[in-house]
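Entry 12.
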Amino acid sequence: MGQDKGTLYRKGMRPGTLFLLAAVYGAASFSVVLLLGIVGYVFFRGFRELSIRFFLSVTSSLKGTVGIAGNMVNTLYVVVLTLVIAIPAGVGAAVYLNEYAGKGRLVRGVSFAVDVLAGIPSVIFGLFGMVFFGYAMGLGFSLLSGALTLVLMILPLIVESTQAALQAVPQGYRQGALGMGAGKWELVRTILLPAAKNGIMSGIILSVGRIVGESAALLFTAGSARLLPRLGVGLWGNAAVLRDKILEPGGTLTVELYLQMQNGEYEAAFGIGCVLILLTFVMNLLLKLISRPRDSKNEVSYGK
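Predicted 3D structure (tokens):
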């Protein structure tokens, strides 16, 4: 019966509807084929470069080695430093705009500034970071200078995703908490942020993807050094070395990919591309897991 209805439905379609349906399926198929083609070609060219030595060594023309160990450490430094600064600032700004500031000119002005900030090209951020953080603040080419520049780049993404997550929380949550005598900060801390945590985490994961994939801004601010930190003696000595690393220059994986392509080392560049694709896959998988609908039993309730 269902099959007969489907057949009649298809027979009754107008030519314009059939054309639109074919265009939609064609566009979807083209997107899948394009993705598989890019991923397949990158892995075909670069998979042979992936080895234990490639992951644990550092590129050196003197030693004749090609590796990304130093670049992975630099990428980790940049991601952690950027998120440590950007998450409190972005989430705090979103909470203030959504829950405290009302609907006045200030909110409209800040929202407009956030939208404009999100559309500025990354190379402009790199120029600003080099002049302000590098020269004016005296940080020079360093991982900290690059992280501060990336903070400016991902703040709009975190603010907008957090605002969207807070706005999606049902009004009944707010009314119920305020009716029970909860203060504004208690409402935000115990109700709104736990209820909006999936949306906030989604924005953070997308921000990590932008940090990992950025190269132009980091070339101007963090530099392109590949060296691993030289560990000292003892726990405190190693901690001091790792702490001082943030003030040293360092190239991330995307910066190293650019340099390898510039030097004509295409196979090594495609190998780094494989690593970046795997990182992108992992981040998208995490995003899917976080965004998966939860049961109603897991809904946050006041006082928990």
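Annotation: Confidence is low (pLDDT under 50) at residues 295-304. The first helix runs from residue 2 to 11.
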